[in-house]
Specification:
single chain, elongated, alpha+beta
Length: 187
């Protein structure tokens, strides 16, 4: 009788301290049911970061004191630290060029580039390569640095020459923003 009483007391004690909820972790099937895709390894465009930040401020959830929200780095300042110079400081060229924005380049990479184009809020909108016609006619192989961000679409057009690249050439514009967002650099 005494053993039964002790056993019952132990079972009752275990029932009080045991977590009888369903297990949180489930065993996954050996083979995944659908192909899995990885998230892109690039930073989201600054518009998405701004939208996420404003949505966080509007949410009803109170902010924790230890949560620190840092703005994304200023892309133009990062480019300047990496040796890019404003084209308007190097040659007779407008500070803001309608259609491309504020243009930066490393002087030793002329005439090919890359040229980095920023809007008035220092957001990278495009990367431009200026390919001289002579290089195309000579069937020259060209290599440029990879774009700093993902590419939404590409524009290619002829230019007869301008300060900085006086020879006829083609602009290969890698747009990092949508066609609708190109309006940032129109005026």
């Amino acid at each position: 009788m005494r053993k039964a009483l002790v056993s019952t007391a132990l079972v009752a004690l275990l029932a009080l301290i045991a977590d009888v909820r369903r297990p949180a972790a489930q065993f996954a099937p050996f083979w995944p049911s659908a192909p899995q895709t990885l998230a892109p390894a690039i930073a989201p465009p600054s518009d998405q970061v701004e939208q996420a930040r404003t949505a966080r401020h509007r949410s009803s959830k109170p902010r924790r004191k230890h949560e620190v929200v840092r703005p994304p780095p200023n892309q133009r300042k990062v480019a300047e630290r990496n040796g890019y110079k404003r084209v308007s400081d190097l040659v007779n060229f407008p500070k803001f060029f309608p259609g491309l924005g504020i243009i930066f380049v490393k002087p030793d990479t002329l005439p090919l580039g890359p040229f980095l184009c920023f809007d008035r809020r220092d957001r990278l909108v495009a990367t431009v390569y200026m390919v001289p016609n002579k290089d195309i006619d000579d069937h020259k192989s060209l290599e440029g640095a990879g774009p700093a961000r993902s590419v939404d679409h590409v524009s290619i057009y002829f230019n007869p020459g301008h300060p900085g690249v006086d020879v006829p050439h083609y602009h290969v514009v890698l747009w990092h923003v949508t066609k609708k967002q190109e309006a940032r650099v129109e005026k």
